[in-house]
Amino acid sequence: MNNIRKDPFRILIPGEAEDVKNYIQVLRLLGAIPEAVFEMDALKKVLAQPDRFDGLVIPGGEDIDPARYGQENTGCRKIDPHADEIQFYAARTFIDRKKPVLGICNGMQMINICFGGDLFQDIPAKARHQHYESGDSYHDSQIAKDSWLQPLYGCCAVVNSAHHQAVRQIGTGLRVCQISDDGVVEALSHEELPVIGVQWHPERLVSESVRQMHGAVDGTKVYRHFLELCAKESETII
User: Fold this and answer.
1) CB burial readout 16-29, b (16+ within 10 A) else e
2) Span 176-190, pLDDT tens digits
3) Of 7, 167, 176, 233, which has the most beta carbons under 10 Å away?
4) What strand order describes the sheet that includes 156-161?
5) Taking the CB of residue 207, how many other CB atoms lie within 10 A of it?
6) Are 58 and 19 in contact (CB under 8 A)?
7) Residues annotated as catalytic (active site), given as ranges
8) The pTM is what?
9) Which domains does the chain have, with CATH numbers?
């Protein structure tokens, strides 16, 4: 019989600590130990230890280089090649090891690309999805029956939005779990692997006052679900 694990889960976030502080805060709030790494040498060193991390959170950021999904640049605004390099390296390492992965915003887009999908570089509905100086946009969405999100939020959810690109062709083995009221893919999951992603930013939906102001969902539930995936995957490795 396996022992029950009691120590905190260690979560890798490939990004600058200051840039990913919201992710760090919510993971710490839920009892995990996040570690931000943003240099390739350091990343390769920590990933050379297969059991060092229980899961990966791919944070949001700049647009992904469209060459990575076989397109020319027709709508990207700002590309960060270094972030692409380390985040794709981390994503593929965790996917190969069949360890839990959570992608946020372009982190979900990165998951889709890892499985052979591609993106809309500039969605027609960007005016109601992108971030403004006043903050995130908010909109309704529908959640697929029997998806990982359905037990968390039911069939409908108001979520935040801060992007102008979106998933187009769905990657092999992935399932659409949530769609905005204007047809943008808002969440994915893999049919066999512990890999999930959302286009929105649940780490910015932790404050009750923010949620009440916009009628939005509790974003901590996404991170709780992710840590539950980490728990399930670690049960046989204790």
Assistant:
1) eeeebebbbebbee
2) 999 999 999 999 999
3) 167
4) 33-37, 10-14, 55-58, 101-104, 195-198, 185-190, 174-180, 137-143, 156-161
5) 12
6) no
7) 105, 201, 203
8) 0.95
9) 10-237 (3.40.50.880)
